[in-house]
Amino acid sequence: MARITAGITTSHVPAIGAAMDLGKTAEPYWAPLFRGYEFSRRWIAEHTPDVIFLVYNDHASAFSLDIIPTFAIGCAESFQPADEGWGRRPVPVVQGHPELAAHIAQSVIQQDFDLTIINRMDVDHGLTVPLSLLFGQPAAWPCRVIPFAVNVVQYPPPSGQRCYQLGQALRRAIDCFDEDLDVQVWGTGGMSHQLQGPRAGLINQPFDREFMDRLVSEPDALARKPHIDYVRLAGSEGIELVMWLIMRGALDATVREVYRFYHVPASNTAVGHLILENGGVQQP
Description:
Layout: E1 3-10, H1 14-21, H2 31-35, H3 38-46, E2 51-56, E3 71-74, E4 78-79, E5 94-95, H4 98-110, E6 116-118, H5 125-135, E7 144-150, H6 160-175, E8 182-188, H7 205-217, H8 219-223, H9 227-234, H10 242-249, E9 254-263, E10 271-281
Parallel strand pairs: 1-8, 2-7, 2-8, 3-6
Antiparallel strand pairs: 1-10, 3-7, 4-5, 9-10
Helix pairs in contact: 1-5, 4-6, 6-10
């Protein structure tokens, strides 16, 4: 049977992708950030999964303000990098896993979560930057990826509780897929940041660090945080952190923290990163 072996969280700042694409990773501004992912690259090389279920938010690349699904699962064979206004990133095409994606869609929808099924879409920096941070710049991504887009751009977003419960439904779906697959779930976005208005540039380090602590040790309580607290304390874009709760809901109740990294700033954003391995005590 398929099994979830680990979960990863990471920010998906577009400027990080640009720094890699333009060969700026060794520059003084960027070097400390990329050093923070050196352990993760070694770890993923030894723990490369068959499939990554990658939770991210689209930035008006696949969806416009005309149609905004709350949850959308990519079921296609492949996904092209999106042109976000300056050409497509020079990264490999993402190869999907339509069989597993279709199984997840059926199972999760039958568990009363409404998903939008996407059979064609381009994927933007929300998805490609995390892959680049962990895998570098390969000729092809070393595993298949199922894109899962969450609306945290247009009000109203899903609650943290809903995202956590969706992660639990995702776990049940993957556990009953009849193929021997090593699956990782990645939650991306965040951490605290605001890109516009009088609070543009806001970063709340105590909030970020507490969020990472509670995500590991008390996710049930963290999931009950009201969405307005994210906006007030972590900035208008801090709401992206609810996507981390999908990852955490898909893991065991007890997890082993393999690695943690936190860095400020990266293009006016706090960057957070965790690697969590399942600890053997499943969610009820």
